[in-house]
Amino acid sequence: MKKNEATVFVFIASVIIGILIxxxxxxxxxxxxxxxxxxxxxxxxxxxxxxxxISGLKEEISKIEKKLNKYNLESNDxxxxxxxxxxxxxxxxEYFGLSAVEGEGIRITVNDAKESDFNEYYMILNLVxxxxxxxxxxELRVAGAEAIAxxxxxxxxxxxxxxxxxxxxxxxxxxxxPFYIDVIGNQVALKDYLSKESNHVKNLQFRKIRVNIExxxxxxxxxxxxxxxxxYAKEKK
Length: 237
Hints:
single chain, alpha+beta, five-stranded antiparallel beta sheet, 6 helices, 8 strands, extended, disordered N terminus
């Protein structure tokens, strides 16, 4: 009899537990929220993004504190402080393309397809266009390019290009093929990225446009000679 009572008790307890589980309830966890896969992934990504931003802010704070400590230690030495300020200005110039730089990288030559290869079938697709240049620039930036110049003219954030007759105007400079694109960055990474089947170099080669990529240990890129101005963007106070 006692055995039957125990069996009944276990059965009733199992039913109760099953009901609690089906109602998404658990002992001591009344405020627990259950997420589906999409909600969980979204929350997980947001958390990781927040952690990354916090880490970046901590790193930036650490850099600023180090600078302040250095300035405080050298506050009695005006020459040392001026040197630190000059270093900071030089770094900013390099970042915005306002100073000449050099380093390892690649040199890309892009030229129209040979007309003799097509005869009467030579078409507009066999010519290099402004969009081709921009596709290449975007892919170079994604691949980690640190500095870029086209035919000796530095490319910066507001450099633009568009077709104008037989030439392409790049940043206000009339440029005709061939286009010589100098790039500073990791040689292997740059070349490998451009060589991917999904990238624009393959599209150019399919159109018989001549593309040559060479590695160089000492690429020299001049400073940007134009004016940098902001008509609408203001410093955030």
